[in-house]
Amino acid sequence: MPNEDNIIDSVLNTTTTAPDTFDPTTFVNNEEPQTLEEGEVLVSVTLSDGTIKEIVVNEDLTYRDSNIGFILETSLEYEDMRSLISKHNICYIDGEWHPVSTNNGYNGAIHCDHNDTWIYRDDSIFGIYNNSGDEGYWHVDEDYIRSEGDDSYISSEVANDHNVYYYDCCDSYVHEDDHNCSSDEDYFDNTRNKSKHDTLNDSKYWGTNSPTYSISNGMRYTFGVEIETSCGTMDYDDWQDLNIKAVYDGSTSGPEYVTGVLKGDYGFNHLKKICESVKNNGHETNRRCGIHVHVGGKFNRLFTIMLLRLGHKIQDELYRMMPPSRLGNTYCKYIPDYVMHMNLTNWREHLGKYIHGSGCTLDKHSNKKSRLGSYPSTRYRWINCVNFSSNTNIPTVEFRNHGASMSYDKIRNWTLICMAIVRYAENNQKRIWYNIEDINLNEVIMTSLGDNIGKQIMTYYYKRSKLFVDNYAEDGSHYDDLPSGYERRGLTID
After folding, report:
1. Which architecture characterizes domain 184-488 according to CATH?
2. How many CB atoms lie within 10 A of CB 34?
3. Where are the chain's structural domains?
4. Per-residue pLDDT tens over the stretch 312-368
5. Is the dihedral of CA 366, 371, 375, 380 positive or negative?
6. Nearest partner of 84 among 113, 112, 121, 109, judged by Cα
7. For 357-407, where are the alpha helices, taking DSSP H only?
8. Is pTM, for the whole model, over 0.70?
9. Sign of CA dihedral 374, 318, 354, 392
10. What is the largest CA-CA distance in the chain?
């Protein structure tokens, strides 16, 4: 059997062998020599089953090797690959050329739009593959989900974008409009907004407008907390005096308790009442649950840039105080590396991508007046800037990376850490811009909270970190799952 050099030499008539000794039956496909038109070349393709197939293709679909000759390109445009399938029954799948059929049988080839690859039809799943609702195929090995309504989504994140969530109660993914496992009585809204008519006693009762701020070292930010649970409920007598609402979340199977807008010492005291009530009513949490803290204020674009740079710098330290379930979590993703490359010429593109999504830039179409819907995918970074960067909700910074808890002490301490990050980003912008590598969490906490409260919070931080030190030590099972692990593995956080 001739090798590739023999074939190429024969076609180009460069051998010294007499023509009458040339035997075309020695070729693998036993076909007559093929006539080449202008611009066409003959290539030999080794298939996944070991056979060699000769085909005539346009020269622009090949590249030339000085030793072998023309070689068929593997990264071809859709129409070019479709032509190869139609004319020659071959397709490049999973790193090899494969024989395929041109019909819709099990060994036909299917194109995956979401990653521009080809797969066997028999290995394909059809469904929705992005938050725009586009439909197409993907490989069966993708971590896809199938809903109760028999619709497929390429990932749980895409399913959530289309209001399809997993429910422990029915052990399946269900569209929120079709879920009816929980009683409507489990959900209520008893939140209170401050009013100019409120008395001091009203503010104290609902935690809305405190005149003192000793717990937060003078920080006057409003704040709110979301406490996710996996099961449980509260009766009217338990919540009628609390500034909260119980909402259906979708990412968890139990109620999510959302506080009203709290402020100052009154707010923290009221938060303690809320935590005790949730805890005392038999609620449970699991690894899918978390604590989300909102810090309210008037924030501009410069603040956003500095907040994200600061968050990127200290995120490794923060995740060391979290359980491993929070690492790489779909609902509290790491801050991407590109925020560290923002400058005067590209900040609109980078902030546009972070807030509005890939391909967006801050302009007249994407700005603070834009509405992004209730659950835009860009909100699932551990620092969520959507609320104060668009016309979507109350202007707050949301911190999403804390694990589940009903403990007032844990939630209060984490809220103070979140406030400290916001204060530092507001008041130390020159240092964040020019000396970011010198900043650590201790500096942020001590600068914002002062010696007394700052030391208490750092003591709490070190205590929490010790709980997970075995996971995040250099020989720990989750060391490379930390944000810094991406760089150690030569990867980029995007």
Report:
1. 2-Layer Sandwich (3.30)
2. 12
3. 4-110, 123-178, 184-488
4. 999 999 999 999 999 988 889 999 999 999 988 899 999 989 988 877 888 766 665
5. positive
6. 109
7. 386-389
8. no
9. positive
10. 110
